[in-house]
Amino acid sequence: MLRVSLLALLLALPLFGSAKPKPTPIVYQEGRYRLANGQQLRGRLCLVSDNDLLIAATDTTPAKKLAAAEVRNFVIGADSFATLRNYDVVVNGVVTHYTHGMMQVCPAGAGLEVYRVQGVMEVLRGVQDPAMKYVLRGISGGAAGIATGALLDNLNDAPNGYFKEELVTLYLLRPANAAPLLTLQPNTSEARKHLKLAMAGDEVLTKKLRNAIMSEEGIAKLLAEYATRHPR
């Protein structure tokens, strides 16, 4: 990772924990998957990152690893996932373009697409402004974002070992008639603005948005309520 102007980007949001996240255990579940060429297969699956899907046919068969570029979509248990291609993520003013990434497909109301993804970020210690203390690190290492202004100054001035890691969650939203995916970063005014745009036709939810807490749970609750009120 380069702690200068180029950052490998996946996620960032204002969470405040001190413990380094533990590695996600490898737990396989029955599922099915479709390759990029359209072939449909079954197996025991485990998603370990936005770019790594493990497939184990049996308990004794060594698992094989598929990259996001090789997979169109898949189901693990009751959860559905899809590979997104050529999209941007915007976090704390850092824009990053991805060629591909595997994400959970969330229930969405009519005209919306919603995706959920988790990843690890690095937190710059000793910085009081939440918008300036989160540095981004991609799991797949396939993207680079450009940091500017105070964020770049913090990166350049930080001594080695002045970072800690946290696991975070991010939502990506595609409103009706809007081609680009919008980043819903919890605890930001941008998340509220994007949700207001997506739910503009619903007066009840638009009113709720004025005072709603833009936490991860708050965002998920609003999206779920919209899906209930506006079924596909």
UniProtKB/TrEMBL annotation:
Keyword entries, A-Z: Signal
Keyword Signal included in the entry's annotation: yes
Signal peptide range: 1-19
Domain of life according to the entry: Bacteria
Protein name, as recorded: Secreted protein
Native organism taxonomy: Bacteria, Pseudomonadati, Bacteroidota, Cytophagia, Cytophagales
